[in-house]
Amino acid sequence: MTGSVVIAGLGPGTDAMVTPEVNQALESATDVVGYIPYVRRIAPREGLTLHESDNRVELDRARHALEMAVSGKKVVVVSSGDPGVFAMASAVFEAVEDGPVEWRNLSIQVLPGITAMLAAAAAAGAPLGHDFCAINLSDNLKPWPLIEKRLRLAAEGDFAMGFYNPRSKARPEGFARVLEVLGEVCEPERLIIFARAVSTPEQKIRVVPLAEATPDMADMRTVVLVGSSRTRLIRRDGAPYVYTPRSVPE
Amino acid sequence: MTGSVVIAGLGPGTDAMVTPEVNQALESATDVVGYIPYVRRIAPREGLTLHESDNRVELDRARHALEMAVSGKKVVVVSSGDPGVFAMASAVFEAVEDGPVEWRNLSIQVLPGITAMLAAAAAAGAPLGHDFCAINLSDNLKPWPLIEKRLRLAAEGDFAMGFYNPRSKARPEGFARVLEVLGEVCEPERLIIFARAVSTPEQKIRVVPLAEATPDMADMRTVVLVGSSRTRLIRRDGAPYVYTPRSVPE
After folding, report:
1. Are residues B59 and B124 in the same domain?
2. Is residue A10 scored above 90 in pLDDT?
3. Fewest CB within a 10 Å sphere: which of A27, A85, A160, B193?
4. Pairing state of beta strands B191-196 and B222-226?
5. CA nearest to A32, candidates A52, A13, A11
6. 3-state SS class at B66
């Protein structure tokens, strides 16, 4: 029996955003590996072993998946959102590059999912409808000055932006600093979207101008979107629509 | 009967990447509107009218959808990829903002899809596994100097990049210029991925160093990904894996 690793994106929360190819991979898996809350989304069944692991042990989890595949298992590594966007796919390939040669000759397939940033954008309207950047605000794996540098360059280029991991208990001051930097570079009317628990029953979308944005509006379940200078708010009965026009005049 | 507009993403090509919520919206639609090749992906059925329209008439198509919704129809506007990424969602909201007040009080919902850039990344490995930018290289709706400015800032920030619409018959010289600019800012070994017809039977993924990238490697069905300076190639039996590590050392 030939083993394999599929790194599959479960989307931001609802099963209504899980693609058919991801469901099919789960149906033919012998083993599912992932962070506890993502593995708990998978229905148990005969012939399937679920392996839950803690947060921040991505490389161990990746190696475990690769070892099982070498021994003939059909392993699915589950990620929330898209596994290629600040999630498990890079961790698996890091393990592969540093691991034994039989790991790199395994069949390893990445199945994309709906990433939180784009689900958040859809829930708000179309704020990422023009050029945009995605930035992980966590400084666990990169120096903080690089985050600020990218933030300033993205703002200077008038990109819209999506921020992952805006705020954690371990570094509550980082996102406050991000808002300060944006305040130096962008006008106070710049539209900021706080999208919490997107696509789940607890979804909450809040739109504020930069001048009214405060650090406590984000937590670890929040994706933050920043409009470009051209992003517009359409007021209406009910929640407003936020969108970035497709065109920039000469 | 209350009408509505759903702007739905069909993903990059295969039905295996269409989300259940998009299929459900299509099942309850009375009218489907979109660019010809996308509408042709929808199976005809009793009670459903298919409205095909040509390329480059996005605003007309959006207004048509909104008019039908006001008259009580359940309209789905289909987009390839994700409607919020260089696709129909912004066009619909532009029409809404400039249109009669009854348009803005309609129920308008955006259902995200797998966008070509992320499907291409998954097919190659995980080249967008760290901070990245998405840039539309078409200068139909924005001045060319803005494209070059964003390109330089993104490269200066060492973002990975995804390019949409790299090359058209109408402006074949644009992408050649993009490669020149990258050559000024990035090292010749920088990894470039040309991903053509992603997720279709004609899918072709080609990975070359920047020094060997040529304009003819891209056409209108190609998404181009540019690694960061840290993006790695894993050689193996079969197609290589390309990934960007999660960490940047101090």
Report:
1. no
2. yes
3. A27
4. antiparallel
5. A52
6. helix
Put simply, the answer to whether A112 touches B119 (Cβ < 8 Å) is yes
Same domain assignment for residues A121 and A108: no
The answer to whether residue A42 sits within a structural domain is yes
| Closest alpha carbon within chain A to B82 | A118
Residue-wise pLDDT for B207-223, tens only, equals: 999 999 999 999 989 99
> Under an 8 A CB cutoff, do A153 and B149 touch?
no
Is the pTM here over 0.90, yes or no? yes
Window A:111-140, CB contacts with B under 8 Å: 111-115, 118-119, 121-123, 125-136
| B58 and B109 part of one domain | yes
CA distance, residue A147 to nearest chain B CA (Å): 9
Give tens-digit pLDDT for A39-60.
999 999 999 999 999 888 999 9
Domain containing B213 equals: 117-243
Q: Could you give the count of Cα atoms lying within 13 Å of A97 in the half-sphere of its Cβ?
A: 20
Can you give the CATH number for the domain in which B91 is found?
Answer: 3.40.1010.10
User: Does residue A4 contact residue A108 with C-beta atoms inside 8 Å?
Assistant: yes
B130 shares a domain with B86 = no
Structural domain total, chain B = 2
In eight-state DSSP terms, residue A98 is: H
pLDDT of B102 reads: 95
